[in-house]
Amino acid sequence: MGPVRLALLAVVALAAAGEAVYIPYNTSAGVVAGKLNVHVVPHTHDDVGWLKTVDQYYVGSNNSIQGACVQNVLDSLIPALLKDENRKFIYVEQAFFQRWWRNQNDMIKDTVKGLISSGRLELINGGMCMHDEATVHYIDMIDQTTLGHKFIKEEFGQIPRIGWQIDPFGHSAVQAYLLGAEVGFDAFYFFRIDYQDRDTRKETKELEVVWRGSKSFGSSADIFAGIFPKNYEPPPGDFYFEVDDDSPVVQDDPLLFDYNVEERVNDFVAAALAQANITRTNHIMFTMGTDFKYQYAESWFRNMDKLIHYVNKDGRINALYSTPSIYTDAKYAANEQWPLKTNDFFPYADNPNAYWTGYFTSRPALKRYVRMMSGYYLAARQLEFFKGKSKSGPTTDYLGDALALAQHHDAVTGTEKQHVANDYAKRLSIGYTRAQELVSTSLACLTELGSKSHCSSPTTKFSQTDFSKGKSLVVLVYNSLGWKREDVLRVPVFSDSIVVHDSEGREVESQLLPIASASLNIRDKHVKAYLGTSPGAKPKFWLAFPVSVPPLGFNTYFVSSMKKSASVSSKSTIYSSQGSENSNLQVGQGNLKLQYNAAGAFSLYSDSRTLIEANFEQKYKYYIGQDGNGSDPQASGAYIFRPNGTVPIKTDSQVPLTVLRGPIVDEVHQQINSWIYQITRVYKGKDYVETEFIVGPVPTDDGNGKEVAAEIVSNMATNKTFYTDSSGRDFIKRIRDYRSEWKIEVHQPIAGNYYPVNLGIYVEDGNKELSVLVDRSIGGSSIKDGQIELMLHRRLLHDDGRGVAEALNETVCLDNQCEGLIIEGKYYLKIDPQGEGSRWRRTFGQEIYSPLLLAFSEQDGGNWANSHIPKFSAMDPTYSLPDSVALLTLQELEDGSVLLRFAHLYEAGEHKDLSALASVDLKRVFPNKKIGKIIETSLSANQERAAMEKKRLKWKVQGPPADGKVVRGGPMDPSKLVIELGPMEIRTFIVNFERSISGKQLL
Amino acid sequence: MGPVRLALLAVVALAAAGEAVYIPYNTSAGVVAGKLNVHVVPHTHDDVGWLKTVDQYYVGSNNSIQGACVQNVLDSLIPALLKDENRKFIYVEQAFFQRWWRNQNDMIKDTVKGLISSGRLELINGGMCMHDEATVHYIDMIDQTTLGHKFIKEEFGQIPRIGWQIDPFGHSAVQAYLLGAEVGFDAFYFFRIDYQDRDTRKETKELEVVWRGSKSFGSSADIFAGIFPKNYEPPPGDFYFEVDDDSPVVQDDPLLFDYNVEERVNDFVAAALAQANITRTNHIMFTMGTDFKYQYAESWFRNMDKLIHYVNKDGRINALYSTPSIYTDAKYAANEQWPLKTNDFFPYADNPNAYWTGYFTSRPALKRYVRMMSGYYLAARQLEFFKGKSKSGPTTDYLGDALALAQHHDAVTGTEKQHVANDYAKRLSIGYTRAQELVSTSLACLTELGSKSHCSSPTTKFSQTDFSKGKSLVVLVYNSLGWKREDVLRVPVFSDSIVVHDSEGREVESQLLPIASASLNIRDKHVKAYLGTSPGAKPKFWLAFPVSVPPLGFNTYFVSSMKKSASVSSKSTIYSSQGSENSNLQVGQGNLKLQYNAAGAFSLYSDSRTLIEANFEQKYKYYIGQDGNGSDPQASGAYIFRPNGTVPIKTDSQVPLTVLRGPIVDEVHQQINSWIYQITRVYKGKDYVETEFIVGPVPTDDGNGKEVAAEIVSNMATNKTFYTDSSGRDFIKRIRDYRSEWKIEVHQPIAGNYYPVNLGIYVEDGNKELSVLVDRSIGGSSIKDGQIELMLHRRLLHDDGRGVAEALNETVCLDNQCEGLIIEGKYYLKIDPQGEGSRWRRTFGQEIYSPLLLAFSEQDGGNWANSHIPKFSAMDPTYSLPDSVALLTLQELEDGSVLLRFAHLYEAGEHKDLSALASVDLKRVFPNKKIGKIIETSLSANQERAAMEKKRLKWKVQGPPADGKVVRGGPMDPSKLVIELGPMEIRTFIVNFERSISGKQLL
């Protein structure tokens, strides 16, 4: 045979073909002293809604958007874990885990229970979702975590030890100390911190720290915080092993080509050494997974088995299957002192021009909806408790579940796709509808005289009471707060001849205010767009009247028509003011008065009680959203706020102000421009300013996305400093263009100074405090001294490249015509003498969170009071919670026990009186019930508090010991049943009431 | 609370949340009489190399090219099958299955054995790969199928029942009758047939037929053939359930949104009814899978479980987990008469301008390499048998495995990516190297006198014998055919003074021919490019001398230098001829003479023995490959031949012919153009023309891809008719622009008339036959009457859009300079009197397939014959196989038994004498061995022939009964050991030889 002239490649030596090459991998390594230990932590990150809805992610539908199916992850995980007892996995998002669990048969359930109890499958973090930390309220964080932890405890007897907030876009102090330490977590892991901060920390090996998130709690709420060096994915060097991933698999079959064990071991060791180089102790963590991975778990484990086997055979380092718990214990065992971190990790930037501060405001309507539902859920659970929880429903459960999902870091954040935002809203709507039924039923029971066993809903379905037929409207007003509440109600009416009576038959002063056509137009449009029905007759007036409601109770008011009676509701006087006339304009019937300037922005605020006088203006502006075209592709979008110029919105001074005056409230209506309408209110009995804004449709016909902000501009010398709350709880000092723990290079002087505002924002100048409180989560800042701004609405035309792949361009469509979404909302403003602002911020802030809950009925004639209980408080009538204490949770659980949670509302030193230790007398809170058993628990109610404190790891901190005394309530004496609360303390209890003689738990 | 103005969607009714919704699916349905039965057949189609190499596909590496990992498929399959005993799966490609199997531990192996024995996992088709049917030789098809079936039989005791050639690009008659019926298959499924044929068959419900592929065997080799209506994927309507597929999953959890059971059931029923509409009987098959699917098998089964459950609950149709076996049995049980199909399904077109006839030639070097190795493997196994198979190696096993892979329908077809083609070549190279060692060792044993237990290789490593030192070259010539063979050898030599002796010391006439520089240049270039070494001194001559070798045996020749002896080798006379001189040019020293015309294309062929005289020309042309730009994007590519114009290649009449003349052979050398060189040979003792061509580098600097064809143009009146072989075996009549069983609309008058040529192509005019035989698989046609053309080489610049995503542009690179691959090859031409051509085509065709095998040694002086056996035949020296019979297989198996396969080479009626029943006398084939036990088996040797025939389903055919008597050999009488073979019959035996007295199985 002549010379072979064909394409031949070099002949390689191979093992004899045909032989079996079954290789048992040794994956049994534990921690090895004296070696670098690589904790291989297999995990998946499953967003509870983002590009697809939670259900779509679970079942794996809508894969054209994103190939992701959580059912695959969990289904495939079980055989993979069974294959090798050393394999481990963590699972995080309980919303998914619960969906999966209820689809399983008993055999699988038993198997999984075994895997969990042996630690091979560990449920960590454990809330229903991995909640956001900027745009969520702490009460929602607690509720959704409690819901998840409860399931884990009940079903598996497990208590999550680890906080695993690996994806949220910045991290809050409240998360660290409250949802971390106070939940009993030993550590808390995440990765999204400012890129400059990260770079510094890598250099100084300070990615792992002890985080002291609470000034009030000091070291008692320290937690170990681990920041990942890059992200929550496998280390650099191609270690992705999902089906279809293109990392090189470990090819160790000598009978096949491309054997690469040596290269892969070298890659792994190199990655480990690089990470060890920026990490203290000889333990590092490899987070082996990412979004929705482990669709076929075996594909990962197969390769990790091999890596562990061959790396340990190589011997340079030690690799082990691990979990964050094992890693944390190893860190703790190293007995190191760790750098201290205080405050929080906001704002987050991943690039010089990429501050993730847009999402503080993105989807403001959804944010408001979530906040409304949160307060409603709190109240509804109280009413569910009063009535007794019914298995046959209606219950508050669906609302609780919907709210839990809405806390996800791509839900309330506004960073999900539009159809997913719709899904969250739909769930809230369903939950609200069910909770409303429960509320109606409960109120019916509470109001009904005689037998309460068959109480029926007071609200027969009606949408409008026809006063002309002698009927009157019964308004039941429920107060979920623990203190008596005076407030002004507003009810839409048709008639201009209205009279209001209280539950004792006394006439109540009231005022009629014509409903602004701006408001009516929105109502009409949205009823048509979302309900598909015609909105019917338009009410003409808001009827405003003051109400007084006892704590944890209700009062009843009666609205009827009365021709020309002396005591008829006052019609507001109406006055139009324009241009220079405005400078004579003053509103306010009580202590607080506002004086307008010629431009129509009010300029003088004066409070005759506190003697505060201050000048400021109320203005609007918008930022042009960077479009991301050109050489720098970073657009402003759902996540990222990147302004490309500021445009002041000038009020047309030709457009008159409209002023409504009356005995209850003065209102100033201003059409700021064609798409901003503003109503400023001063109530006679209240010492703050309420501003209602209607913003939108934001025009984009100039091709620019716009981000609309309200400004309050004063001449206060605030020295670059302002304060924003952390998840609605602690206020944190912010200094413009400055970070307290690291040196910032400023690239984005506006976006980089934005912070999340859940409760409020304030500035002070040594003499006074200017506070603004909000009705939802919002982005805010003080961009100039004396100034506060709130980002009210964002309408953008470009995606910002962080995955959602949609422009944040919310629209409302009617007859195939779409226009930008209109946002309606309120903010509240008050100026207090220095040192006094906290009282309003805290107490009134709680009232904003928990508005009065209304129910309506009709009566023919005046017989209601004869057949109903018109006024009620669940508490001892002479008792009220201290001003500093809120009842966060009063909820009957499935087993009849009751979850009870009180919160001290003030930080240590925040207020000279109200920051003191406070007490709650449970016997007076529940005067008609006998507490059989009461156990104090962790914040998420999944373990006894005492056991938690004993168990929780105490971490050592570098530097001098923490100074300052921490005030916490002492142990509760079961005979006294008095709960003490130190500043910022939240105490959680499981209470078992003894059954009353009647055998019912009703009051 | 005022009217909710937020985005609310309609509230939908949901089952009570929180309840368990574990649903046990009823998947137990079998066939239901009176209903439409949908056979749900889960399958994966795993190419044994295509875009990635077979090993890359297996381990899942190189996923950036294609996300595919067969290990995932098989790993995930096992738990999925265990989950529900009704789930079924078929697996096809044994190359993958064997790779996986040898990685498994005993527990998994036991589990899998259970699944296979219970029919839940069925291994069908069962070859190492799903071989191609156009470019493969039937011997390779048999070998690769035998290899796969052997494993299945030995490991699992199973015999595959079903042919499953779902992807090859057209289907051969040999596949149907030989690799189908003769293997014992009951049915054969596929989908790629001409789109016009398919459309017709859909209308007439003739997608399922009985295929009678063999004229010789008639109905005795009928097989049920099922053509899929569209492809081998799930039916239309989105039923793809791979991880990440975007078909709607069946969402049946009432607690989640998007419940869609009803829609999905309707989709399924609609798909079933549509398919039922074009299918006979109430059974249809849904092929649930496609390329490399079931990476996570559960994802498919989960959805199929639900579909079967809910579809059967719906009740309109019956869905069942099935396999092609169950489906076939159901079809058979229907007791229908089926339409008859004869001939084959070539060529395949999936669109008017998309004839898959390019791949008949694509990668001609690889095709030649495969064919060379195929013949070598046949011979090497004989030598392995003579020596005795050794477990410690070397063996022919690797070559067998490499050849098996190379038969894959993206291997020898040339439709794989370049790096994958390299992988096949590498495997062949390794296999060849090992087989060479075995061959050397075996020949050493056979030649050695005395003890054969430690025989050493005769070929000590030498590349060149230095005659000047008195050494001579020993040439051992092995003949693997069953008959004595006279041939001319060619050995490169340096000296011009050479003498050749035979094994009895007689001088043999020989001739020296200067080696053409075209050949030397290729040698130099390829040695450098592929071996990376300098090629060393250049031999000057080919030494040609006739040899005579006994059947299944060898002879020895001695080449030495002898100064100026009378008997020295004749140097060829050299003569240059140009222009009109050519017309006087005549070559041929024997019966056959060729007379050239002025253009240098020879014009007169005359054979003084047969008295044939015929005029014809030998020409070259190229087709311009359609580039696929413009409105019609179909390019010519690896699969598809789509010419865009024909360019004749004119021989420059200024370039002289070179004529070499001598006692053995005359050669005419022609530089056709700058990149085509042709040598035409006429051997004194042979009555055919041998044409060697060197084509390339095909220039593409004009931006055109080119497809180069050789033409033989005669004036024969061939009436549009020509004949091409089916996989190297039966000749099938082809008529230009015509299909025998359906009406074709001609869109591609060239590409649509191309057919695969493995053995040869011929035309006839009633007086004579013009036959051309080839040295590899190639595309050929008769585009004009009297003409034959062979596509020799293809170099194209565009991908043709069938998945490979590479242009077929083979290059050779040296010092970073790449140029087009040069193809060297031969074709053979003969003109016979009408009715006589088959003898040459069959007998010489077999010699082309099985060239003489050479081994070299050196001797000092003339002592070789004293110490060695110089001449040998394994058979009785007086015996020879009949001219009509070839020994296809003589192979010792691992257990010491021997696989023996004889083939009758003639079709019924093909030759007046040689088509008769033939006999092989085994006692004379193995004169020195005693046959202990001999069992006739199916073609793939996995079952007894008698049992197979009894078991195999007999299908009814529409129309009159088949006429004509089928001649097959009768049962073999074990005492006589004479095997009879009817026309085209291949008979396979497992033989156990009794041990010889010496205890060795050697001769």
Automatic annotation (TrEMBL), chains A, B:
Single biological process term from Gene Ontology: mannose metabolic process
Cofactor(s) required for function per UniProt: Zn(2+)
Entry keywords, A to Z: Disulfide bond, Glycoprotein, Glycosidase, Hydrolase, Metal-binding, Signal, Zinc
Annotated CDD domains: GH38N_AMII_LAM_like
Domain Glycoside hydrolase family 38 central: 354-428
UniProt entry tagged with the keyword Transmembrane helix: no
The EC number(s) this enzyme carries: 3.2.1.-
Catalyzed chemical reaction(s): Hydrolysis of terminal, non-reducing alpha-D-mannose residues in alpha-D-mannosides
SUPFAM superfamilies xrefs: Families 57/38 glycoside transferase middle domain, Galactose mutarotase-like, Glycoside hydrolase/deacetylase
Name the record gives this protein: Alpha-mannosidase
Species, as recorded: Panicum virgatum
